[in-house]
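Changelog entry

Holo records now carry the ligand SMILES as an explicit input line rather than a separate metadata file. Below, a converted record for molybdenum atom, shown in the new format.
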Amino acid sequence: MQAAALGALGATDAGLARAASFLPAARSALGAGVDAHPYGMPSAHEKRVVRRYLPWMNATTESSVSFTPLAALEGIITPNGLHFARHHAGAPDIAPCAHRLLIHGLVRRELVFTLEDLRRFPIVSRFHFLECAGNGALQWRGPQSNAVQFTHGMISCCQWTGVRLGDVLRHCGLKDGAQWLLCESADGAGYARSLPLARAMDDCLLAFAQNGEALRPEQGYPLRLLVPGCEGAASIKWLARIEVGDAPWMTREETARYSDLLPSGKARLFTLEQQVNSVITHPSPENPLRGKGAQQISGLAWSGRGRIRAVDVSFDGGVSWREAALEEPVLPKCLTRFRLPFDWDGKEMLIQSRAMDETGEVQPTYAQNIATKGETGIYHNNSITTWQVARSGEATHVRLD
Ligand SMILES: Nc1nc2c(c(=O)[nH]1)N[C@H]1C(S)=C(S)[C@@H](COP(=O)(O)O)O[C@H]1N2
Ligand SMILES: [Mo]
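Structure line, unchanged by the conversion:
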């Protein structure tokens, strides 16, 4: 960076000398000892970085969703305590030694596994996002909330560790006619979904850890299914039973819910894949611009179909586009961080990001999303989001067709 630009940011020699006088009182006192925090927590100054929920969205606090504060995070990994949480009957407390996974139905050997049994299969770790199909539902027909946390916070990304569902199913031995699984949980909702066998044999995990430690209770401790790239509803938490069958079960959660009602009155079922999507987190309603000059656009892109190939950024509401840099690693079915430095002239802007995945799929505009999925949709909104940045630097969520 040029000396002049650094000067504008306050990093002059004189500035550095003065900084010495700002050394905190901490210099002359003892800090917290090793016994203070057996399990470390964020600094007390970060206490605003928390999951949040909208009371009117939740039937009860148990049948509910809380959102990840995406705009306060860096990189691509969601800290475990900030992973969004979507429960239909609250998060149960399950002792791992008492937990079992039953696999039965069209298998040669019906088996009951303990967690220790499962750990005898080859263990793998994979980086994947998990996104609720309802992410973006709030702004289906226009802005309803002015925060990235609520427009896009039903997505999180972890390094998940577990064993391959395919290995465990092969161990049980699939019988002729096996086409679908019913995956059911041990929670009070008896939450259950049907999963096509081909997907189960592909890259699904029986996960017991996230970001290096045991799953959090809210994420399904001690065992969850992870169906990479698919709507979160398929990733059954507190997984207790898998039945192998020849047809889907048509549970409530795949018929009355998590199906896409089209303008024709028909509904699409089993639209599992999360489509290509992105959002700018800096600047955003939570992160206004502070002054003209050197700035950096930064945000997140993802696709349930594979890797992100490119992200374009517009400063003028989609009239012209510039390609952002993708930060490594760029992994399939994982959040990808994009960045684009720019010089702000202090004028109003309409900023947007538009991602393309490796299959060539591109995010639709608001109008295109409604044209294909209807006015009254809830699930699978992946349309381009617009922040209107005012001269003050404040960013506001606006609808732009
Ligand atoms: N047992 C069980 N599994 C569940 C759910 C649930 O309520 N109970 N909710 C589903 C939905 S709709 C989503 S989006 C994801 C959310 O996972 P998370 O709470 O770990 O973010 O879990 C899915 N698996
Ligand atoms: Mo969901």
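Spot-checked after migration. The chain has two domains: 80-268, 277-398. Residues 135 and 154 are 5 Å apart (CA to CA).
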